[in-house]
What we know:
The protein is of the alpha/beta class. 42% of the residues lie in helices and 18% in strands. It is elongated and about 80 Å long. It binds coenzyme A.
Amino acid sequence: xxKSALQGLLxxxxxxxxxxxxxxxxxxxxxxxxxxKCGYAGKIYPxxxxxxxxxxxxxxxxxxxxxDPIDAAVITVPAKLVPSVTEECGKKGIKGxxxxxxxxxxxxxxxxxxxxxxTAKKYGTRILGPNIVGTMSNSDKLNASFxxxxxxPGKSALISQSGALLIAxxxxxxxxxxxxxxxxxxxxMSDVDIADMITFLNEDPETSCISLYxxxxxxxxxxxxVARKAKKPIVALKSGVSAHGAAAAASHTGSLAGAAKxxxxxxxxxGIIQAEDLDNLFDRTLALSQQPPLKGENILILTNGGxxxxxxxxxxxxxxxxxxxxxxxxxxxxxKHMPDFGSAKNPVDLTGMAGNDWYFETVNFSHGHKWxxxxxxxxxxxxxTDPMGIAKAIKDGVDKSGKADKPVTVSFVGGERSEKAxxxxxxxxxxxxxxxxxxxxxxxxxxxx
Length: 449
Ligand code: COA
Protein backbone atom coordinates (compact mmCIF):
# COMPACT_ATOMS: atom_id res chain seq x y z
CA UNK A 1 0.00 0.00 0.00
CA UNK A 2 1.24 3.48 -0.88
CA LYS A 3 0.91 5.24 2.46
CA SER A 4 1.47 8.75 1.15
CA ALA A 5 -1.23 8.33 -1.52
CA LEU A 6 -3.80 7.31 1.08
CA GLN A 7 -2.64 10.07 3.40
CA GLY A 8 -3.13 12.52 0.53
CA LEU A 9 -6.55 11.06 -0.21
CA LEU A 10 -7.93 11.01 3.35
CA UNK A 11 -5.97 13.74 5.13
CA UNK A 12 -5.10 16.07 2.22
CA UNK A 13 -3.27 19.37 2.59
CA UNK A 14 -5.01 20.71 -0.53
CA UNK A 15 -8.24 19.77 -2.31
CA UNK A 16 -9.60 20.43 -5.80
CA UNK A 17 -13.33 20.06 -6.49
CA UNK A 18 -13.71 19.03 -10.12
CA UNK A 19 -17.27 19.94 -11.06
CA UNK A 20 -17.49 22.69 -8.44
CA UNK A 21 -20.58 24.77 -9.03
CA UNK A 22 -21.90 28.15 -7.91
CA UNK A 23 -25.47 26.84 -8.11
CA UNK A 24 -26.92 25.93 -4.70
CA UNK A 25 -28.53 22.50 -4.73
CA UNK A 26 -25.85 20.94 -6.95
CA UNK A 27 -23.51 18.46 -5.29
CA UNK A 28 -20.51 20.42 -6.67
CA UNK A 29 -21.79 23.44 -4.74
CA UNK A 30 -22.49 21.54 -1.51
CA UNK A 31 -18.98 20.04 -1.41
CA UNK A 32 -17.42 23.49 -1.85
CA UNK A 33 -19.73 24.94 0.80
CA UNK A 34 -18.89 22.11 3.22
CA UNK A 35 -15.14 22.52 2.77
CA UNK A 36 -15.53 26.22 3.50
CA LYS A 37 -18.02 26.16 6.38
CA CYS A 38 -16.44 23.23 8.27
CA GLY A 39 -13.22 25.23 8.46
CA TYR A 40 -10.82 23.18 6.32
CA ALA A 41 -7.45 24.91 6.63
CA GLY A 42 -5.83 23.50 3.46
CA LYS A 43 -5.95 25.06 -0.01
CA ILE A 44 -9.24 24.72 -1.94
CA TYR A 45 -9.32 24.82 -5.74
CA PRO A 46 -12.72 24.82 -7.49
CA UNK A 47 -12.48 23.44 -11.03
CA UNK A 48 -15.19 24.57 -13.46
CA UNK A 49 -15.00 25.27 -17.21
CA UNK A 50 -16.57 28.74 -17.07
CA UNK A 51 -16.83 30.16 -13.51
CA UNK A 52 -14.12 32.70 -12.54
CA UNK A 53 -14.69 32.10 -8.80
CA UNK A 54 -16.87 29.95 -6.57
CA UNK A 55 -17.76 30.84 -2.96
CA UNK A 56 -14.89 33.32 -2.91
CA UNK A 57 -12.24 30.88 -4.18
CA UNK A 58 -10.53 31.51 -7.53
CA UNK A 59 -11.73 28.83 -9.98
CA UNK A 60 -9.73 27.09 -12.71
CA UNK A 61 -10.87 25.44 -15.95
CA UNK A 62 -8.68 22.39 -15.30
CA UNK A 63 -6.53 20.99 -12.48
CA UNK A 64 -3.65 21.38 -14.95
CA UNK A 65 -4.05 25.17 -14.69
CA UNK A 66 -3.30 25.11 -10.94
CA UNK A 67 0.38 25.78 -10.32
CA ASP A 68 0.70 24.37 -6.81
CA PRO A 69 0.58 20.63 -6.10
CA ILE A 70 -2.82 19.17 -5.16
CA ASP A 71 -3.26 16.19 -2.80
CA ALA A 72 -6.87 15.16 -3.43
CA ALA A 73 -9.62 15.90 -5.92
CA VAL A 74 -13.32 15.48 -5.21
CA ILE A 75 -15.04 14.57 -8.48
CA THR A 76 -18.61 15.80 -9.00
CA VAL A 77 -18.96 15.78 -12.78
CA PRO A 78 -21.33 13.35 -14.55
CA ALA A 79 -20.03 9.80 -15.15
CA LYS A 80 -19.21 10.23 -18.84
CA LEU A 81 -16.76 13.05 -17.98
CA VAL A 82 -14.96 11.13 -15.24
CA PRO A 83 -12.44 9.31 -17.54
CA SER A 84 -11.03 12.54 -19.02
CA VAL A 85 -10.99 14.21 -15.60
CA THR A 86 -9.14 11.18 -14.14
CA GLU A 87 -6.53 11.49 -16.91
CA GLU A 88 -6.00 15.19 -16.11
CA CYS A 89 -5.77 14.53 -12.38
CA GLY A 90 -3.20 11.79 -13.04
CA LYS A 91 -1.12 14.16 -15.17
CA LYS A 92 -1.30 16.76 -12.40
CA GLY A 93 0.11 14.20 -9.95
CA ILE A 94 -2.91 14.28 -7.64
CA LYS A 95 -2.57 11.53 -5.02
CA GLY A 96 -6.19 10.53 -4.62
CA UNK A 97 -9.60 10.98 -6.22
CA UNK A 98 -12.78 11.06 -4.17
CA UNK A 99 -15.27 10.12 -6.88
CA UNK A 100 -18.78 10.99 -5.73
CA UNK A 101 -20.32 10.38 -9.17
CA UNK A 102 -22.69 7.42 -9.60
CA UNK A 103 -23.33 5.42 -12.78
CA UNK A 104 -20.55 2.80 -12.70
CA UNK A 105 -20.44 -0.88 -11.73
CA UNK A 106 -23.40 -0.47 -9.36
CA UNK A 107 -25.62 -0.05 -12.44
CA UNK A 108 -23.70 -2.59 -14.54
CA UNK A 109 -21.34 -0.07 -16.15
CA UNK A 110 -18.21 -2.04 -15.27
CA UNK A 111 -16.29 -0.98 -18.40
CA UNK A 112 -16.41 2.68 -17.42
CA UNK A 113 -15.23 1.83 -13.91
CA UNK A 114 -12.38 -0.35 -15.23
CA UNK A 115 -11.34 2.47 -17.54
CA UNK A 116 -10.94 5.03 -14.74
CA UNK A 117 -9.13 2.53 -12.50
CA UNK A 118 -6.66 1.69 -15.33
CA THR A 119 -6.02 5.40 -15.97
CA ALA A 120 -5.48 6.14 -12.29
CA LYS A 121 -3.14 3.16 -11.93
CA LYS A 122 -0.99 4.50 -14.79
CA TYR A 123 -0.26 7.58 -12.68
CA GLY A 124 -0.24 5.96 -9.23
CA THR A 125 -3.41 7.85 -8.28
CA ARG A 126 -5.72 6.12 -5.76
CA ILE A 127 -9.50 6.14 -6.16
CA LEU A 128 -12.06 6.27 -3.35
CA GLY A 129 -15.42 5.25 -4.81
CA PRO A 130 -17.02 5.89 -7.22
CA ASN A 131 -20.61 6.21 -6.01
CA ILE A 132 -19.83 7.74 -2.62
CA VAL A 133 -20.81 10.60 -0.33
CA GLY A 134 -17.16 11.54 0.19
CA THR A 135 -14.88 11.58 3.20
CA MET A 136 -14.70 13.51 6.48
CA SER A 137 -12.02 14.06 9.10
CA ASN A 138 -12.67 16.04 12.27
CA SER A 139 -9.01 16.40 13.10
CA ASP A 140 -8.43 18.08 9.70
CA LYS A 141 -11.80 19.94 9.76
CA LEU A 142 -12.22 18.33 6.36
CA ASN A 143 -15.71 17.75 5.01
CA ALA A 144 -14.98 16.58 1.47
CA SER A 145 -18.49 15.22 1.05
CA PHE A 146 -22.08 16.27 0.58
CA UNK A 147 -23.02 15.22 4.14
CA UNK A 148 -24.22 18.41 5.87
CA UNK A 149 -21.76 18.55 8.79
CA UNK A 150 -18.81 16.85 10.45
CA UNK A 151 -19.74 14.18 13.02
CA UNK A 152 -19.58 14.71 16.77
CA PRO A 153 -15.83 14.52 17.48
CA GLY A 154 -14.58 11.20 18.83
CA LYS A 155 -11.84 8.64 18.40
CA SER A 156 -13.42 6.16 15.98
CA ALA A 157 -13.40 5.97 12.21
CA LEU A 158 -16.44 4.73 10.30
CA ILE A 159 -16.06 3.09 6.91
CA SER A 160 -19.40 2.67 5.21
CA GLN A 161 -20.36 0.92 2.02
CA SER A 162 -23.64 2.80 2.08
CA GLY A 163 -23.52 6.53 1.52
CA ALA A 164 -27.02 7.31 2.74
CA LEU A 165 -26.40 5.36 5.93
CA LEU A 166 -23.17 7.27 6.49
CA ILE A 167 -25.07 10.58 6.31
CA ALA A 168 -27.68 9.24 8.72
CA UNK A 169 -25.04 7.97 11.18
CA UNK A 170 -23.28 11.35 10.89
CA UNK A 171 -26.46 13.07 12.11
CA UNK A 172 -27.11 10.41 14.75
CA UNK A 173 -23.69 10.93 16.35
CA UNK A 174 -25.12 14.05 18.00
CA UNK A 175 -28.20 12.40 19.47
CA UNK A 176 -26.43 9.13 20.32
CA UNK A 177 -23.40 10.98 21.77
CA UNK A 178 -21.00 8.59 20.05
CA UNK A 179 -18.24 10.58 18.37
CA UNK A 180 -16.15 9.82 15.30
CA UNK A 181 -12.96 11.38 14.00
CA UNK A 182 -13.40 10.10 10.47
CA UNK A 183 -16.26 8.96 8.27
CA UNK A 184 -15.33 7.46 4.95
CA UNK A 185 -17.80 6.44 2.27
CA UNK A 186 -16.26 3.61 0.29
CA UNK A 187 -18.96 2.87 -2.31
CA UNK A 188 -18.02 0.58 -5.18
CA MET A 189 -14.44 0.01 -3.90
CA SER A 190 -13.12 0.12 -7.48
CA ASP A 191 -9.61 0.65 -6.09
CA VAL A 192 -9.30 1.55 -2.37
CA ASP A 193 -11.04 -1.21 -0.42
CA ILE A 194 -11.74 -2.10 3.20
CA ALA A 195 -8.33 -3.77 3.58
CA ASP A 196 -6.58 -0.53 2.48
CA MET A 197 -8.72 1.42 4.91
CA ILE A 198 -7.91 -0.85 7.84
CA THR A 199 -4.21 -0.63 6.99
CA PHE A 200 -4.35 3.17 6.83
CA LEU A 201 -6.49 3.69 9.93
CA ASN A 202 -4.40 1.26 11.93
CA GLU A 203 -1.54 3.77 11.59
CA ASP A 204 -3.68 6.89 11.95
CA PRO A 205 -2.91 8.55 15.30
CA GLU A 206 -6.42 10.05 15.62
CA THR A 207 -8.21 6.67 15.29
CA SER A 208 -8.58 4.27 18.21
CA CYS A 209 -11.38 2.05 16.87
CA ILE A 210 -12.36 1.08 13.33
CA SER A 211 -16.09 0.68 12.66
CA LEU A 212 -17.38 -0.91 9.49
CA TYR A 213 -20.74 -1.06 7.75
CA UNK A 214 -20.21 -3.84 5.21
CA UNK A 215 -22.36 -5.32 2.50
CA UNK A 216 -19.60 -7.49 1.08
CA UNK A 217 -15.80 -7.74 0.80
CA UNK A 218 -14.06 -7.50 -2.56
CA UNK A 219 -10.86 -9.26 -1.49
CA UNK A 220 -11.87 -11.25 1.57
CA UNK A 221 -8.59 -13.06 2.13
CA UNK A 222 -6.52 -9.86 2.17
CA UNK A 223 -9.08 -8.12 4.39
CA UNK A 224 -8.87 -10.96 6.92
CA UNK A 225 -5.06 -10.83 6.85
CA VAL A 226 -4.81 -7.09 7.48
CA ALA A 227 -7.58 -7.15 10.09
CA ARG A 228 -5.80 -9.92 11.96
CA LYS A 229 -2.59 -7.86 12.08
CA ALA A 230 -4.34 -4.64 13.13
CA LYS A 231 -3.42 -3.24 16.55
CA LYS A 232 -6.79 -1.51 16.96
CA PRO A 233 -10.24 -2.99 17.57
CA ILE A 234 -12.42 -3.44 14.50
CA VAL A 235 -16.19 -3.73 14.86
CA ALA A 236 -18.38 -4.60 11.90
CA LEU A 237 -22.04 -4.55 11.04
CA LYS A 238 -22.56 -6.92 8.14
CA SER A 239 -25.80 -6.56 6.23
CA GLY A 240 -27.16 -8.64 3.39
CA VAL A 241 -27.22 -11.80 5.49
CA SER A 242 -30.71 -12.83 4.40
CA ALA A 243 -31.41 -14.08 0.85
CA HIS A 244 -33.37 -10.94 -0.03
CA GLY A 245 -30.79 -8.73 1.69
CA ALA A 246 -27.99 -10.24 -0.40
CA ALA A 247 -29.87 -9.48 -3.62
CA ALA A 248 -30.47 -5.91 -2.46
CA ALA A 249 -26.75 -5.43 -1.69
CA ALA A 250 -25.81 -6.70 -5.16
CA SER A 251 -27.87 -3.97 -6.79
CA HIS A 252 -26.63 -1.33 -4.33
CA THR A 253 -22.84 -1.51 -4.45
CA GLY A 254 -22.36 -4.51 -6.74
CA SER A 255 -20.97 -6.56 -3.81
CA LEU A 256 -21.46 -10.25 -3.41
CA ALA A 257 -23.00 -10.51 0.01
CA GLY A 258 -22.42 -14.04 1.26
CA ALA A 259 -23.90 -16.40 3.77
CA ALA A 260 -24.02 -15.14 7.34
CA LYS A 261 -22.08 -18.16 8.62
CA UNK A 262 -19.17 -17.62 6.25
CA UNK A 263 -18.83 -14.00 7.28
CA UNK A 264 -19.18 -14.89 10.94
CA UNK A 265 -16.28 -17.34 10.82
CA UNK A 266 -14.21 -15.00 8.64
CA UNK A 267 -14.74 -12.22 11.20
CA UNK A 268 -13.74 -14.47 14.06
CA UNK A 269 -10.57 -15.56 12.20
CA UNK A 270 -9.78 -11.91 11.55
CA GLY A 271 -10.48 -10.78 15.12
CA ILE A 272 -13.27 -8.52 13.85
CA ILE A 273 -15.99 -8.01 16.46
CA GLN A 274 -19.50 -8.23 15.07
CA ALA A 275 -22.33 -5.83 15.79
CA GLU A 276 -25.86 -7.22 15.69
CA ASP A 277 -27.54 -4.11 14.32
CA LEU A 278 -27.04 -0.39 13.91
CA ASP A 279 -27.81 0.34 17.54
CA ASN A 280 -25.26 -2.25 18.60
CA LEU A 281 -22.65 -0.81 16.20
CA PHE A 282 -22.90 2.52 18.05
CA ASP A 283 -22.79 0.83 21.47
CA ARG A 284 -19.82 -1.39 20.71
CA THR A 285 -17.93 1.37 18.89
CA LEU A 286 -18.29 3.56 21.97
CA ALA A 287 -16.92 0.90 24.32
CA LEU A 288 -14.07 -0.17 22.02
CA SER A 289 -13.01 3.42 21.34
CA GLN A 290 -12.95 4.42 25.02
CA GLN A 291 -11.96 1.36 27.05
CA PRO A 292 -9.09 -1.15 27.11
CA PRO A 293 -9.84 -4.81 26.33
CA LEU A 294 -10.90 -7.15 29.14
CA LYS A 295 -7.86 -9.28 29.93
CA GLY A 296 -9.27 -11.80 32.42
CA GLU A 297 -12.46 -13.66 33.28
CA ASN A 298 -13.72 -11.85 36.38
CA ILE A 299 -16.38 -9.22 35.97
CA LEU A 300 -17.93 -7.51 38.96
CA ILE A 301 -21.33 -5.84 38.74
CA LEU A 302 -22.12 -3.03 41.19
CA THR A 303 -25.69 -1.77 41.51
CA ASN A 304 -28.03 0.21 43.75
CA GLY A 305 -31.08 -1.69 42.51
CA GLY A 306 -31.86 -5.40 42.73
CA UNK A 307 -33.89 -5.28 39.51
CA UNK A 308 -31.19 -3.83 37.28
CA UNK A 309 -28.71 -6.17 38.97
CA UNK A 310 -30.78 -9.17 37.87
CA UNK A 311 -31.19 -7.72 34.38
CA UNK A 312 -27.41 -7.28 34.22
CA UNK A 313 -26.86 -10.85 35.41
CA UNK A 314 -29.23 -12.21 32.76
CA UNK A 315 -27.45 -10.14 30.12
CA UNK A 316 -24.05 -11.44 31.27
CA UNK A 317 -25.21 -15.00 30.63
CA UNK A 318 -26.79 -14.04 27.31
CA UNK A 319 -23.48 -12.59 26.10
CA UNK A 320 -21.37 -15.47 27.40
CA UNK A 321 -19.79 -13.65 30.35
CA UNK A 322 -19.31 -16.05 33.29
CA UNK A 323 -20.28 -14.32 36.55
CA UNK A 324 -18.66 -15.66 39.71
CA UNK A 325 -19.20 -14.66 43.33
CA UNK A 326 -16.45 -12.34 44.52
CA UNK A 327 -13.91 -13.92 46.95
CA UNK A 328 -14.45 -13.50 50.70
CA UNK A 329 -11.92 -10.68 51.18
CA UNK A 330 -13.53 -8.66 48.39
CA UNK A 331 -16.99 -9.23 49.87
CA UNK A 332 -15.80 -8.22 53.34
CA UNK A 333 -14.46 -4.91 52.09
CA UNK A 334 -17.57 -4.19 50.00
CA UNK A 335 -19.84 -4.89 53.01
CA LYS A 336 -18.34 -1.81 54.71
CA HIS A 337 -20.18 0.36 52.18
CA MET A 338 -23.68 -1.05 52.27
CA PRO A 339 -26.41 -1.71 54.83
CA ASP A 340 -26.88 -5.18 56.36
CA PHE A 341 -29.61 -5.97 53.89
CA GLY A 342 -27.29 -5.37 50.90
CA SER A 343 -25.46 -8.14 49.09
CA ALA A 344 -21.72 -8.30 48.50
CA LYS A 345 -21.81 -11.30 46.18
CA ASN A 346 -22.01 -10.62 42.46
CA PRO A 347 -23.97 -8.56 41.47
CA VAL A 348 -23.04 -6.40 44.43
CA ASP A 349 -26.25 -4.73 45.60
CA LEU A 350 -25.43 -1.53 47.47
CA THR A 351 -29.20 -0.99 47.81
CA GLY A 352 -31.19 2.16 47.19
CA MET A 353 -29.38 3.78 50.12
CA ALA A 354 -26.18 4.06 48.10
CA GLY A 355 -25.06 7.65 47.61
CA ASN A 356 -21.99 9.25 46.07
CA ASP A 357 -19.63 8.05 48.81
CA TRP A 358 -20.59 4.38 48.64
CA TYR A 359 -20.36 4.45 44.87
CA PHE A 360 -16.95 6.12 45.06
CA GLU A 361 -15.60 3.69 47.70
CA THR A 362 -16.86 0.51 46.07
CA VAL A 363 -15.87 1.52 42.52
CA ASN A 364 -12.47 2.64 43.71
CA PHE A 365 -11.85 -0.57 45.70
CA SER A 366 -13.21 -3.00 43.09
CA HIS A 367 -11.52 -1.36 40.12
CA GLY A 368 -8.23 -1.45 41.98
CA HIS A 369 -8.58 -5.04 43.23
CA LYS A 370 -6.55 -7.74 41.50
CA TRP A 371 -9.47 -10.22 41.40
CA UNK A 372 -11.59 -7.83 39.34
CA UNK A 373 -10.73 -7.81 35.62
CA UNK A 374 -13.64 -5.62 34.51
CA UNK A 375 -16.29 -3.55 36.25
CA UNK A 376 -19.90 -2.91 35.26
CA UNK A 377 -21.54 -0.17 37.31
CA UNK A 378 -25.33 0.05 37.27
CA UNK A 379 -27.48 2.78 38.78
CA UNK A 380 -31.22 3.36 39.13
CA UNK A 381 -32.25 6.98 39.52
CA UNK A 382 -33.64 7.49 43.03
CA UNK A 383 -35.28 10.38 44.86
CA UNK A 384 -32.37 10.47 47.31
CA THR A 385 -29.50 10.72 44.81
CA ASP A 386 -28.31 13.07 42.09
CA PRO A 387 -27.27 11.14 38.95
CA MET A 388 -24.52 13.65 38.14
CA GLY A 389 -23.06 13.19 41.63
CA ILE A 390 -23.06 9.40 41.13
CA ALA A 391 -21.45 9.79 37.68
CA LYS A 392 -18.67 11.91 39.16
CA ALA A 393 -18.18 9.46 42.02
CA ILE A 394 -17.80 6.59 39.52
CA LYS A 395 -15.30 8.52 37.38
CA ASP A 396 -13.35 9.56 40.51
CA GLY A 397 -13.30 6.01 41.82
CA VAL A 398 -11.99 4.68 38.51
CA ASP A 399 -9.36 7.42 38.14
CA LYS A 400 -8.08 7.06 41.69
CA SER A 401 -7.67 3.28 41.38
CA GLY A 402 -4.84 3.95 38.92
CA LYS A 403 -5.74 0.91 36.78
CA ALA A 404 -6.07 2.48 33.37
CA ASP A 405 -5.82 -0.91 31.67
CA LYS A 406 -9.01 -2.28 33.26
CA PRO A 407 -12.34 -1.74 31.48
CA VAL A 408 -15.45 -0.15 32.97
CA THR A 409 -18.92 0.16 31.47
CA VAL A 410 -21.90 1.88 33.04
CA SER A 411 -25.67 1.93 32.80
CA PHE A 412 -27.98 4.53 34.35
CA VAL A 413 -31.70 3.84 34.25
CA GLY A 414 -33.75 6.97 34.74
CA GLY A 415 -34.88 10.18 33.14
CA GLU A 416 -33.36 13.39 31.89
CA ARG A 417 -30.96 13.79 34.82
CA SER A 418 -29.60 10.30 34.22
CA GLU A 419 -29.24 11.03 30.52
CA LYS A 420 -27.23 14.18 31.27
CA ALA A 421 -25.03 12.29 33.71
CA UNK A 422 -24.38 9.58 31.09
CA UNK A 423 -23.42 12.22 28.52
CA UNK A 424 -20.95 13.56 31.05
CA UNK A 425 -19.51 10.08 31.61
CA UNK A 426 -19.11 9.50 27.87
CA UNK A 427 -17.46 12.89 27.42
CA UNK A 428 -15.07 11.82 30.16
CA UNK A 429 -14.17 8.50 28.58
CA UNK A 430 -16.55 6.09 30.34
CA UNK A 431 -19.11 4.39 28.07
CA UNK A 432 -22.57 4.69 29.60
CA UNK A 433 -25.85 3.21 28.36
CA UNK A 434 -29.54 3.55 29.11
CA UNK A 435 -30.04 -0.18 29.84
CA UNK A 436 -28.05 -2.74 31.87
CA UNK A 437 -28.18 -5.13 28.91
CA UNK A 438 -26.21 -2.63 26.82
CA UNK A 439 -23.51 -2.12 29.48
CA UNK A 440 -23.03 -5.91 29.61
CA UNK A 441 -23.04 -6.18 25.81
CA UNK A 442 -20.35 -3.47 25.70
CA UNK A 443 -18.28 -5.43 28.24
CA UNK A 444 -18.78 -8.55 26.11
CA UNK A 445 -17.32 -6.65 23.11
CA UNK A 446 -14.26 -5.73 25.22
CA UNK A 447 -14.04 -9.39 26.26
CA UNK A 448 -14.24 -10.61 22.65
CA UNK A 449 -11.54 -8.12 21.64
N1 COA B 1 -14.34 19.95 -15.27
C1 COA B 1 -14.90 20.61 -14.24
N2 COA B 1 -16.20 20.90 -14.17
C2 COA B 1 -16.98 20.52 -15.18
C3 COA B 1 -16.48 19.84 -16.29
C4 COA B 1 -15.10 19.55 -16.31
N3 COA B 1 -14.53 18.90 -17.29
N4 COA B 1 -17.49 19.61 -17.11
C5 COA B 1 -18.60 20.10 -16.56
N5 COA B 1 -18.30 20.68 -15.37
C6 COA B 1 -19.17 21.34 -14.41
C7 COA B 1 -20.51 21.70 -14.95
O1 COA B 1 -20.48 22.83 -15.77
C8 COA B 1 -21.30 21.93 -13.66
O2 COA B 1 -21.03 23.23 -13.13
P1 COA B 1 -22.12 24.45 -13.33
O3 COA B 1 -23.19 24.22 -12.32
O4 COA B 1 -21.31 25.68 -13.08
O5 COA B 1 -22.60 24.33 -14.74
C9 COA B 1 -20.67 20.92 -12.70
O6 COA B 1 -19.46 20.47 -13.33
C10 COA B 1 -21.54 19.71 -12.47
O7 COA B 1 -21.95 19.18 -13.70
P2 COA B 1 -23.52 18.93 -14.04
O8 COA B 1 -23.60 18.50 -15.47
O9 COA B 1 -24.32 20.11 -13.64
O10 COA B 1 -23.82 17.70 -13.14
P3 COA B 1 -24.81 17.54 -11.90
O11 COA B 1 -24.37 18.39 -10.78
O12 COA B 1 -26.21 17.65 -12.31
O13 COA B 1 -24.54 16.00 -11.54
C11 COA B 1 -23.30 14.38 -10.31
C12 COA B 1 -23.26 15.50 -11.33
C13 COA B 1 -21.92 13.83 -10.11
C14 COA B 1 -23.80 14.92 -8.97
C15 COA B 1 -24.29 13.27 -10.81
O14 COA B 1 -23.87 12.84 -12.08
C16 COA B 1 -24.30 12.07 -9.90
O15 COA B 1 -23.56 11.11 -10.08
N6 COA B 1 -25.19 12.08 -8.90
C17 COA B 1 -25.28 11.02 -7.92
C18 COA B 1 -24.29 11.25 -6.81
C19 COA B 1 -24.50 10.28 -5.67
O16 COA B 1 -25.60 10.16 -5.19
N7 COA B 1 -23.43 9.54 -5.26
C20 COA B 1 -23.53 8.40 -4.38
C21 COA B 1 -23.89 8.71 -3.01
S1 COA B 1 -24.10 7.28 -2.04
